Amino acid sequence: MSIQRRKKHNRSNERRKLKREEALKELEVLEKNCQNLPLNLEYESFKELPLSLLTQQGLQQSNYIEMTKIQRKAIPLALRGRDVLGAAKTGSGKTLAFLIPVIESLYRKSWTQLDGLGALVIAPTRELAIQIFEVLRKIGRKHSLSAGLVIGGKNVDVEQERINRMNILICTPGRLLQHMDQTANFKCDNIQVLVLDEADRILDLGFEKTINAIIENLPKERQTLMFSATQTKSVKDLARLSLEDPEYVSIIEDSEHSTPISLSQHYLVCELPQKLDILFSFIKSHLQAKVLVFLSSCKQVRFVFETFCKLHPGAPLLHLHGKQKQTKRLEIFNKFSSMKHAYLFATDIAARGLDFPAVDWVVQVDAPENAETYIHRVGRTARYDASGHALLFLLTSEEQGMKAALDKKKVPIDKIKVKSSKTISIQKQLQSLCFKDPEIKYLGQKAFVSYIRSIYLQSDKSIFKVDELPIEEFAATLGLPGTPKIKFVKAQSKNATRQKPKKVPGYSSSDEDEGNSVKILEMNSNTLPNLDVQEKKRKEANPKSKLDKMFNRKNMSVLTDHYKKLVDQEADNITSEEELITLKRANHELSDELKQPGRDPLSKRKLMKATSKKFIIKNAPRGKRLIFDDDGNPHQVYEFQDEKAFRSAGDIASQKKEFIEKEFEVMKKEDITDKIIARDKRQEKKIKKKVKLKEELEENMKSVVTLSTTLPMYKEFHEDELNKNAERDFEESSDEEYERLSNKRQAASLPDHTDLNGGEALINKKRKLLEIEEPKTLEDQEALALKLLNRL
Ligand SMILES: Nc1ncnc2c1ncn2[C@@H]1O[C@H](COP(=O)(O)OP(=O)(O)OP(=O)(O)O)[C@@H](O)[C@H]1O
C-alpha cells in the first residue's frame, strides 16, 4: 500500500472512531437525561423530551409534534424506566405513549440484530396488532431496529424462519405462545420491554392463562407498560402479576367524562321489531356519512348486510366480522379506512383500538354488553382532535339498566325520540327477500337465534332480559315466515346435564323442563311436527294464509336440508361455552302410517308416496358391518357388554384406556399391512415401467444404427426420462426413499457435485453413461446400445 493510501485509510479509520465515540457519548447523555428527567414538569411537545435524533425525525416526518395528555404523562415515566399502567380516553394517542419508550429503550442500549428480541407488544386482535405495527414503522423509520408482526391466520413456518431475526415483535397472545412452544431457538430471555395494549380486552377474551404462560417465559428484569381506554379490576390483578410497583396514569379519572369531549352521544328507545326499520331510515337520511354500525353477532351482521345490499339504500355498505378470513378482514379494514362515505356493519371485532380515519357516526343497533364496551365502540369516532356522533338503540327493557351503567362510568348521553313519521318500514321487502331467496331466509333464522342467544348469554341481567323480548314480532320483522322455535327448557345444572344420557337430536322430552339452568332448543318451525300443545292451539286460532303455506312449501326442501346440515354440524361442534345453549335439529320423524305402508294410510297420495321405490329405499334400514369369527358366526364390529359385566370389569377410565390401547394396536397392524400392499403396488408399477422403457429403448436403438446424429436427442430423452421417473417416484415414495431419489435426480440433471458423499459414486456412474463419445462405426453404435440397455 502506498504511503498516500495508507494515510487516507488511517484518516477514515479515525473518522469512524470519532463517530463511534460521538454516538456513544450521545447515548450516554441520552441515558443520563432520561434518568434525570424531571417528572413534575408539563412537557408540551416531543422536542422537549430526551429522545434520540432518529425518533425525533421519525415523529416530525409523521406530523407528530405536540403531545396528547396521556403521552405527556406516560412517556416521561416510561423513559425513566418505570412500569406504567395507563388509562386514557379512546383516540387519545396511547399507541405512541408506549411505542416511543419501546424504541428509545432499545436504542439507548445500542440494540442490534445480534442482541435478538428486545421488546414484545401484545394486542388482543390481529387488526389492532397490524395497526400498531404500521405506527411503529412510521415513527421508527430512521432506526435500524427490525420489527415483525406475529398474528394468527398467517403461515407459521414463514414466521418461524424470521422471528429470530426481530428486535421488536407485535403479536396476538395465542400465536406468540405457539411460537414460544414450537419455534426452535425462539428466545425471549433478553426482553427489555413488554407492552400489553387493551390489557382488559386481552383478559376478556380469555387470554389470562396465555398471558400468564407468556410472562413466565420472560425475564423478571424488564419494563412493563399496559394501556387501555378502560381499566377494570382484572387489569389491576394482571398488573400485580407482571408490573413492578407500577405508576398508574389515568387521564380518565382526572376528567369529568370518560369519553371524548368532542363526541355527542344520544340514545333512542325502541322495540326490537322496529330496529331494522330505524336503521334503514337512518341510512337513508345520512347517505353522505361514514358510519360504523355495531351488531351483536356475526350472523346479525351478515343478515343485515346481505339484505340491506339488496334493498339498495343508496350508500356503500361493507361488513366486518370474525368469521371472515384474515385477508378479507384486512381488505375491508383498508377499504373502509380509505372511503369518505360508507357504512360498515361490524361485530365487536371493530370495537377496540381500530383507528379508522374520519368516522362521523357510531351507531349501536344492538346494545353493548357493558359500559366499557360502549366506551370502546363510540371511541371509533371523535378521535384525537376530530368530532363525532354516537347513537345507541335501546329496548324499553334495556333502558334503565344501561343508562345507570353509563352514568356510573361517566358517559354523558341524552335521550332522543324517533319520529315514527320518518321511519320507513322494510318488513315487506325483507319478507319478499326471504321468500325469494332461501339463503336469506336461512341467514334470517340464524340471525334471529344468535340475537336471542346473545341476549340470553349477557351477564348483566339487570339490562338484558331475554324473557321480555317480543320474539314472534321480531321474527316477522326479519321477514321470516314463522318464528324459529326457541324453547326455554329448564335443565339441571351444567354438570348434571353432562352426566345425563345423550338425547336423540331433535327429540325434546318433558324432563328437560326440570332443573335450574336454562337450555335453548332451536327448531325449524317449517318442519316441526312435535309442536307443543300451546303452539298447536295458536296455529288453530290463526290459520295460515295461502301465502304462508306457499312460502313454506317453496322453501321447505331447499332450506331444510341445508339448515339441517348446519344445525347438525353446530350441534356436533358445541363448545363448552355453548353447552348451555344447544341447537337441535328439527324432529323429522314420519308419522306411523307412512312408516308402515301396509297399514291404512290417510290418503291416496300418502299411500303412493309410502309405497314408492324411492321412499322405500330412502327409509330402508341401513346395513350393518359385521365381522365373522373362526366358526363363521357374525358379530357387530363393536359389541356391547351388559352393563353389570362392564362395571365389574374395573373402573371406566382404565377400561377406556385399555380399549383405546387395544384398538391402537389393531390400527397399527392394519397400517403396516396397508403400507406393505401399497409398497408392493408401487414396485409392481415400477417394474412395468422399466420393461416398457427397455422396449422403447430397443426400438430407439434400431434408429441409432441408421442415424448417428440422433444420439444427442437420445441423451436428452434419457435425462428427461430419468428426471421424470425420479419426480414421479419421489411423489409416490416414502420418506426413506427421498435421499436415494433426490440423488438419482441430481445425478441425471446436475453438473459437478464433488461435495456429495453418498451420491458421488452414483453421479460418476451416470456421468459415464451420458458423456460417452459419439459412435462412429456400426460396432460403436451397437456397443453403445448395449451399454445403455445394461444401465437400465
Ligand atoms: N401527538 C399526536 N399528534 C397528532 N396526532 C396524534 C398524536 N397522538 C396520536 N395521534 C393520532 O390520534 C389517533 C388516535 O391515536 P391512537 O390510535 O394511538 O389512540 P388510542 O388512545 O390508542 O385509541 P383507542 O383507545 O381507541 O385504542 C391516531 O390517528 C393518531 O395518529
TrEMBL record:
InterPro entries: DEAD/DEAH_box_helicase_dom, Helicase_ATP-bd, Helicase_C-like, P-loop_NTPase, RNA-helicase_DEAD-box_CS, RNA_helicase_DEAD_Q_motif, SPB4-like_CTE
EC supergroup of this enzyme: hydrolase
Places the protein is found: Nucleus, Nucleolus
GO annotations of cellular component type: nucleolus
Acidic residues: compositionally biased ranges: 729-738
Superkingdom of origin: Eukaryota
Keywords: ATP-binding, Coiled coil, Helicase, Hydrolase, Nucleotide-binding, Ribosome biogenesis, RNA-binding, rRNA processing
A GO term, aspect molecular function: ATP binding
Gene3D superfamilies on file: P-loop containing nucleotide triphosphate hydrolases (3.40.50.300)
Chain ranges of the Helicase ATP-binding domain: 75-249
Reactions it catalyzes: ATP + H2O = ADP + phosphate + H(+)
Domain DEAD-box RNA helicase Q: 44-72
Free-text note regarding domains: The Q motif is unique to and characteristic of the DEAD box family of RNA helicases and controls ATP binding and hydrolysis.
Record-stated family: Belongs to the DEAD box helicase family.
PANTHER family xref list: RNA HELICASE
Function: RNA helicase.
Protein name, as recorded: ATP-dependent RNA helicase
UniProt lineage: Eukaryota, Fungi, Fungi incertae sedis, Mucoromycota, Glomeromycotina
